[in-house]
Design goal:
The chain is α/β, with parallel strands linked by helices and 258 residues long. It has a single domain, classed as P-loop containing nucleotide triphosphate hydrolases (Rossmann fold, 3-Layer(aba) Sandwich), CATH 3.40.50. The strands form 2 sheets. It has a 6-stranded mixed beta sheet, sandwiched between helices. The structure holds adenosine-5'-triphosphate (ATP) and magnesium ion (MG). Adenosine-5'-triphosphate binds next to strand 2 and helix 1.
């Protein structure tokens, strides 16, 4: 079914070079990739193979050197910088490998930023942020500053911030790297239900083999190329049916929209 749906992301022969001359790094060497709404696509591969670079290009944060990048039926390369910023704010959520939380703001204030940028009042945005943090077992730390949080807690704040405005495309760079098995599982369930129930496209970079079962597709990357895509219809999909998944993700989704 999903393969007949229009892709949310289409990359064709995407090349990204950093630097030039002696310091030239060919990070992406002709990437072809399609990502579909309602699915969770995992991007896996060794350190330095270009995963973060590819996510950044897809999210419109980094200009590719050449190639086609279509996101939600928009050609990113044809967009002006200001239009791209607006498009990103409205449609894309990004969980950075290094979290990128604002240190002077509390967890809830960090999470509410996308809603405030979208024009919501601070009060409503804050309430929505606290509710989403509660669903991620972080309700009791909503007023803490990032420096007062553990790595795994900061990671959950970063994920909540990327989700709160219901982006149609969510990209996550190693979202479970700092989490224990149980919390990692909960977060993957949230991400999976976000994809399935909201018909969102979710791309997750991971080194964490514990999360492989959650993916509908696993794109394997090596040395700047996608070298293969495995489609799964086993454990990952069947987990959707569990009531936990529906409750965690559905409630957080509905709660924020309301
Ligand atoms: N700003 C930059 N300037 C120069 N080279 C860079 C820059 N960012 C990344 N690179 C290089 O590009 C290549 C791909 O980097 P990238 O960060 O995309 O890898 P990655 O697959 O995300 O690795 P990891 O799993 O360690 O996060 C690496 O060789 C890296 O050293
Ligand atoms: Mg990386």
């Amino acid at each position: 079914m999903a393969t007949q749906t229009e892709a949310a992301v289409v990359c064709r022969d995407v090349i990204k070079n950093y630097g030039s001359g002696d310091s030239l790094v060919r990070a992406l060497r002709g990437v072809d990739l399609e990502v579909f709404p309602g699915e969770l696509t995992l991007l896996v591969g060794p350190s330095g193979c270009g995963k973060t670079t590819l996510l950044s290009v897809v999210a419109g944060i980094l200009e590719p050197t050449s190639g086609q990048v279509n996101v939600l039926q928009h050609d990113l390369r044809k967009m002006s910088q200001s239009k791209k910023v607006r498009f990103r704010r409205q449609n894309i959520g990004f969980v950075f490998q290094q979290y990128n939380l604002l240190p002077a703001l509390t967890a809830a204030e960090n999470v509410s930023i996308p809603l405030i940028l979208a024009g919501q009042s601070r009060r409503r945005a804050h309430a929505a942020a606290v509710e989403l943090l509660e669903r991620m077992a972080m309700g009791n730390r909503a007023n803490a500053l990032p420096t007062q949080l553990s790595g795994g807690q900061q990671q959950r704040v970063a994920i909540a911030r990327a989700l709160i405005h219901h982006p149609r495309l969510l990209v996550c760079d190693e979202p479970t790297s700092a989490l224990d098995a149980k919390t990692g599982h909960t977060i993957m369930e949230v991400l999976r239900s976000v994809a399935v129930e909201g018909e969102r496209a979710v791309i997750i970079v991971t080194h964490d083999s514990r999360v492989y079962d959650f993916g509908d597709r696993i794109a394997r990357m090596e040395d700047g190329h996608i070298i293969g895509i495995d489609t799964q219809n086993g454990t990952g999909r069947s987990m959707r049916a569990t009531s936990d998944v529906a409750t965690v993700g559905g409630a957080s989704h509905g709660g924020v929209t309301a």
